[in-house]
Amino acid sequence: MFKTILVPVDLGEVEAAQPAIGKAVELANASGGTLRLIYVRAIVPVTYMEFMPPTFDDEQQGEAERKLAELAAKVALPAERVSAVVRLGSVYNEVLDEAEKTGADLVVIGSHRPTMATYLLGSNAATIVRHARCSVLVVRA
């Protein structure tokens, strides 16, 4: 049913992503599909960059790739059916672009229960649901 499943992960809240990863694994097992984890690093404002060491971006990218690879290694699927990518930008733009780029059939995203701030400001999950060209499954944490 689903050949490529994309799962956005916040490395700062990995436990919140576990229900979404679990559901994605279940769906990938049922359909023989692949799973792709994505973490999106935030862009550091230019005004702060003068205070950062010259290797800051490379170190942050490397650390994020290492943590995501560790998480991907724990996914209960054969290694050849799991991949991971770290991108830089805004979460929903990068997730939507990765879904298009990989031809994802499904995005499985974890979400907290909505708060008043979420209703007023929106959330990454809500934006992905509204703009994705593929199916999106929101798993409540």
Task: Please give a structural write-up.
With 141 residues, this protein is an alpha/beta fold. It contains six helices and five strands; from the N terminus they run E-H-E-H-H-E-H-E-H-H-E. A five-stranded parallel sheet has the order 3-2-1-4-5, with helices on both faces. Helix 4 (91-102) runs parallel beside helix 6 (124-131). The radius of gyration is 15 Å and the shape is globular. The protein starts with a strand and ends with a strand. The relative contact order is 0.22.
How would you summarize what this structure contains?
Helix 4 (91-102) packs parallel to helix 6.
Helix and strand arrangement:
Blueprint: E1 4-8, H1 14-31, E2 34-41, H2 46-49, H3 56-73, E3 82-88, H4 91-102, E4 106-111, H5 116-121, H6 124-131, E5 135-140
Parallel strand pairs: 1-2, 1-4, 2-3, 4-5
Helix pairs in contact: 4-6
Shape: globular
**Mind telling me the C-alpha Rg?**
15 Å
Give the termini separation: 24 Å
- Per DSSP, what share of the residues sits in E-state strands of 2 or more residues? 15-25%
Largest sheet: 5 strands, parallel
Q: N-to-C SSE series?
A: EHEHHEHEHHE
Mean pLDDT: 90
Strand order of the largest sheet: 3-2-1-4-5
Give the helix tally: 6
Helix content: 40-55%
Uncertain spans = 116-121
| Total strands | 5
Structural class: alpha/beta
